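$ ./design --mode recover --in tokens.txt
reading tokens...
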């Protein structure tokens, strides 16, 4: 029997879910087809047009081999659409045509056609056959849904994803190229530094050797001015040789070829040796280079596990940097200290009055090497102000080693040259807190 007509079905949006569920049932389209009997076709648009419009669906039918006729909510501008002629492509189109030839119903078959304005439109058609009394197919009817906007959005999304993927691949290729170039530049720089260092060392040794011969006068006395010149040449050659050695060590560190030779090392002995070696240069620059009094926890022989030669280079770099950035007449004090975390540190404090705090920012090769060597030990290089704030403050460098490298501290032993005592100074963080307070 034909379904009972619900009251106000065309005007109530609440009828949409029930209507849609009935049409999606296996016999839903067959039940709808029963309404298209002689005399029933004229009332289909009036009965279901509003509901079809709410669902975004179009009702259609086809008689014989004619074009599809849209009965309710027709897609604008589409005419002359025929079943099986403008469907998908490949295997999908072959299966759809096979279903049509066998008289089987179909669901969501993809169709595309041009509208009257020449735009490509996309539809999904679902339909069931209309049969004669003997079972022969005399036509089709069903539902259509336009998906042009959805397909356009999907195509736009796919294109955007393709562009993003292409951009990512291009960025990855550019990064790989840049990384390769950086690696080549780093390798070339390391090779250049190593080559130049080796090339400079040979003539420097000759210059230093001849300066020693002139200074020591092994072949007889010479005029005193020439002896002074020879001393200057010898001292300058030694400093230049030290810079070349620093460059060579820095290139080895950056190339990963530098190896630490760790052993029990007395920090106070290392400081005493560097003070004795560099004090004449400090006096020549009209600077006082003294030993600072260590804090109570580091009084005596302080032994750490470290590379002795590397620590000697670190201390020399600190002193040389202090001599470059400290005005004449000031005092440099080298000593041991302890950070708030309990890490042992080598400090170089300046008593310079009027020395700008920014002077600590001037890094030379020595400080760069100092940072690298401390980094190999797990330590770090820090700086702060020793004294009052402002331009009247002295400067202080900290070469900090991790507490795990401290082996033991023995009772005091006279090993360092003494000078004017410098009280134990707080760590950089403590000094900063004191100034803030």
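writing sequence...
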């Amino acid at each position: 029997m034909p379904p009972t007509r619900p009251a106000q079905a065309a005007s109530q949006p609440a009828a949409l879910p029930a209507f849609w569920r009935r049409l999606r049932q296996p016999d839903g389209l067959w039940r709808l087809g029963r309404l298209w009997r002689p005399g029933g076709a004229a009332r289909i648009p009036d009965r279901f047009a509003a509901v079809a419009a709410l669902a975004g669906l179009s009702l259609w039918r086809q008689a014989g081999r004619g074009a599809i006729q849209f009965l309710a909510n027709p897609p604008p501008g589409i005419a002359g659409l025929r079943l099986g002629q403008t469907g998908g492509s490949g295997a999908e189109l072959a299966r759809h045509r096979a279903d049509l030839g066998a008289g089987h119903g179909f669901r969501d078959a993809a169709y595309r056609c041009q509208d009257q304005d020449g735009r490509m439109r996309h539809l999904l058609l679902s339909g069931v056959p209309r049969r004669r009394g003997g079972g022969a197919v005399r036509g089709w009817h069903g539902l259509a849904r336009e998906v042009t906007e959805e397909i356009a959005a999907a195509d736009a999304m796919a294109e955007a994803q393709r562009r993003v993927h292409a951009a990512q691949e291009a960025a990855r290729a550019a990064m790989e190229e840049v990384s390769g170039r950086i690696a080549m530049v780093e390798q070339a720089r390391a090779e250049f530094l190593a080559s130049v260092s080796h090339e400079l060392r040979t003539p420097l040794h000759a210059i230093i050797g001849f300066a020693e011969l002139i200074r020591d006068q092994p072949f007889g006395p010479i005029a005193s001015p020439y002896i002074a010149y020879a001393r200057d040449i010898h001292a300058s050659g030694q400093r230049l040789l030290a810079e070349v050695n620093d460059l060579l060590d820095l290139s080895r560190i950056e190339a990963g070829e530098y190896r630490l030779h760790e052993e029990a090392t007395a920090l106070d002995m290392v400081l005493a040796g560097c003070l004795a070696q560099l004090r004449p240069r400090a006096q020549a620059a009209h600077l006082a280079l003294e030993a600072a009094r260590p804090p109570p926890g580091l009084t005596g022989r302080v032994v750490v596990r470290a590379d002795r030669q590397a620590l000697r280079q670190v201390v020399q770099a600190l002193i040389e940097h202090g001599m470059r950035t400290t005005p004449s007449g000031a005092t440099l004090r080298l000593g041991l200290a302890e950070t708030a975390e309990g890490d042992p540190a080598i400090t170089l404090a300046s008593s310079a009055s009027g020395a700008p705090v920014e002077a600590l920012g001037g890094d030379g090769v020595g400080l760069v090497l100092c940072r690298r060597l401390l980094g190999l030990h797990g330590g770090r290089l820090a700086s702060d102000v020793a004294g009052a704030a402002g331009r009247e403050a002295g400067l202080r460098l900290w070469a900090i080693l991790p507490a795990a490298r401290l082996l033991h501290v023995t009772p005091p032993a006279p090993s360092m040259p003494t000078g004017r005592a410098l009280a134990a100074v707080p760590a950089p963080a403590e000094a900063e807190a004191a100034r803030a307070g």
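exit 0
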